[in-house]
Amino acid sequence: MKKKTKVLLAVLFIVLVLGLYYWIHPALNIQSFGVISLLVVILFALSAVFNANDRVHQVPTSFKQMPLTFKAAVAVLLAVFVVNTIFSSIFMSRRYASLIDKQTGSFADDVAEVDLNNVAALDRESTQKLGDRTMGQIPELVSQFSVSDQYTQIIYKGRLVRVTPIDYAGFFQYMNNRSTGTPGYILVDSTTGQSSLVQTDRGLKYTENGILGNNIYRHVQLQYPTYMLYDAHFEIDEDGAPYWITPVKKVVAVDEMTDVQGAIITDAVTGKSHYYKTADVPEWVDYIYPASLIESQLNDNGKYQSGWWNSMIGQKGVTKTTNGYNYVACNANNDVCLYTGITSAAADESNLGFVLVNMRTKETRYYAAPGAEEYSAMDTAKGIVQEKGYSATFPILVNVNGKPTYMLSLKDDAGLVKMYSFVDAQDYQKVTATDAANGLQAALNDYLKAYSGSSASSTAETITGMVTDVKTAVINGNTYYYFVIKDQTYVAVATASDRSLPFVSAGDTISFTADGNGNITSLNP
């Protein structure tokens, strides 16, 4: 091959490599398996280009006859294998087990009594349908934009909500709107189901479907080229400003013993980013630890507590997470915690207990509560109305009278919530299902009547007192009013015949008739 040809090929090769790097943007970090794989590909390509010979076509018959670049690629792969083996779970099992610090907690003390005015009654699937419906009500946007499937569960102004950005519908839509960006984001209340499109003063310029520099993953990686990153997710701060949160990996050897060392917060409008260490991340951020990482660390913790050999032979005390998780509000509704059950390695249909993991701090509490595994509880809830053929959502864990209790929804084939069910987490034979039209409070009352040990009184009584707090919730089209009087909560359902409820506010003194379950049957003049 002529020298000029080789120079031309070298220039072309460099351009292709730079283009490839820009497009796939791997972290320029020797601890990243992605960049090592790219390096190996480059070495193989160099071997093919610079060892080509137009006159002599010889096939190497031994490793010694292989080109130097080919030998270098093999050496790189061998080095990665050796180093990762040394730092693998075989030799470092107890370090794997210590990646998450699982402390024993008291459920009754750590988890507040269920607040039906702020629970995630809607699962992700139902939330997506509400978000799509909201977007579909704005015809001028539908042809240009789509709703992202992010739907991040966060705490916003003390309430559990899901947020997801509006994205470009495709390449041509991006080209038409790249200067103004997308309109904003969808906000769905996880309790009431109220969904709205929040339009920002300036459009979102950085999204998942953005092209070239407007793609959020490429944008952040090129800003921090040596950082190893998890996928970005969407959140909003307490003022409703949109941001992308990108957790930064911490690894040992090559992609081993992965953890989080911090997070990059990127303004979705301006693209400005700032890196924070885990201890310095602002409190409004709800996630810096990916759920998949938490599950992996919990499984390693349960698997390697007594070493690698025990995890393979005997498996004494070996545990793992159940197949699923959900989110609950924790720390007085300031943080989001991941909930999942802990079961034995034998994978039976019971739990040894469960954990709550703070998704911002990774603070982990384990609660020993032998009982029903989540899917067993789901089957039980479906079983009591099996003739209807409903499907069950993955349950959330709530505190009912100091006891861990599953709360879940039963949905029809169209995905509409038809019933609410409560199941005792320690005895899944204790289960009730209530028509969703009656609301969550009625469902909880049915459960308490059936399994509280004594039926709640149904004797009506007249109560007079000053209202110290009022909250409302719209559930399946019905408006519920929660009045706090003398540290007790009473609930009333708005009806067409009684229009006075919306005018009751904190500080008012009212008289009403209520049953023994706290349900207001009528307001007295």
Mean pLDDT: 84
Class based on secondary structure composition and strand pairing: alpha+beta
Distance between the termini: 101 Å
How many strands, which pairing sense, and closed or not: the largest β-sheet?
6 strands, mixed
Count of discrete alpha- or pi-helical segments spanning 4 or more residues = 13
- Stretches with pLDDT under 50, minimum 5 residues: 454-458
Counted up, domains total 4
Strand content of the residues, in percent? 25-35%
Rounded to an integer, what's the Rg over CA atoms? 28 Å
Structure description:
With 525 residues, this protein is an alpha+beta fold. Helix content is 28%, strand content 34%. The chain has four domains: 84 residues; 92 residues, no CATH class; 165 residues, no CATH class; 69 residues, Nucleic acid-binding proteins (OB fold (Dihydrolipoamide Acetyltransferase, E2P), Beta Barrel). A hairpin with a 4-residue loop joins strand 12 and strand 13. Helix 2 runs antiparallel to helix 3. The termini are far apart. About 1% of the residues have low confidence.
